[in-house]
Amino acid sequence: MAKILVADGMDRNAAKELTNMGHELVIEHLDVPELKKELGDYDVIIVRSATKIRKEVIDAVAGSNLKLIIRAGVGLDNIDVSYAREKGIAVENTPKASSASVAELTIAHMFSLARFLYISNVTMRDGMWYKKAYKGIELSGKTLGLIGFGRIAVEVAKRASVLGMKVIYTDIIAKDGYDEFSCVSKEELIKTSDFISLHIPFIKEVGPVLSENEFNMMKDGVYIVNCARGGVVDEEALIKALDSGKVAGAAIDVFEEEPTKNKKLFTHEKVSLTPHIGASTKEAQARIGLEIIDKVKEYF
Ligand code: MLT
Fold first, then answer.
1. Cβ(230) to ligand 1 under 6 A?
2. Which residues does 8 contact at the CB level (< 8 Å), separation at least 6?
């Protein structure tokens, strides 16, 4: 049976099930120096986004007991995947489990921006009654541009479409079976969307997908939503575009650094914020838990 380190927490029922299956679970977050010392005693590590498994950790545990890294989530950007595999350590993720939850958060942020929910919750607590300042917009009739059209974006598209939005997307390839949504170039999407939402991984070699150049091409008063990955939107360029009024509002769940220290961004009056909670629902975590059990069963 396997000794499993659960480094960033996991669904309680799934943890119980793994224990019932005879595995030994240790639920504890370890920082890099401790990971380098202790991870070699485990067969499996389960992480979310907080624990980074980089080359230095992999080097420290290569040839030890560690056989499997499971990312409880979609993005593998906190793990040096090919390096781990080169060293004989398998890497798995749970790509399907959280799509609906992330899509719902994306739509929630769009409503939050359109109707000033994020800021009126703050000003009313301060005793203000800014009725006149919060003249919003309807989502219905607006164009939503999705950058990336994987599982999560498709769920966003379906929900936005029911709300009366026109949905366009850009991806490396047009996706079959979604004729109601048009595949356009990134440039067309940037120039014509009222809302732009990103659903792509962060790739270091590519860098931000929305920077000053892209903001300059956008419609005045565009809204930006990032529930994908920190780094895909250049935070400094975004702040500039918010200050100039080019961008009317931005909703951010993920940051270049987490927890974010970008005070200008997290105190900005046009920004709707959440602390990387796209997959943080009871349902998504339960489904992730089931996928983890399957991965452990398959491996052992
Ligand atoms: C994901 O990649 O699925 C999420 O970022 C997971 C998380 O919330 O840590």
1. no
2. 29, 46, 47, 48, 49, 50, 51, 72
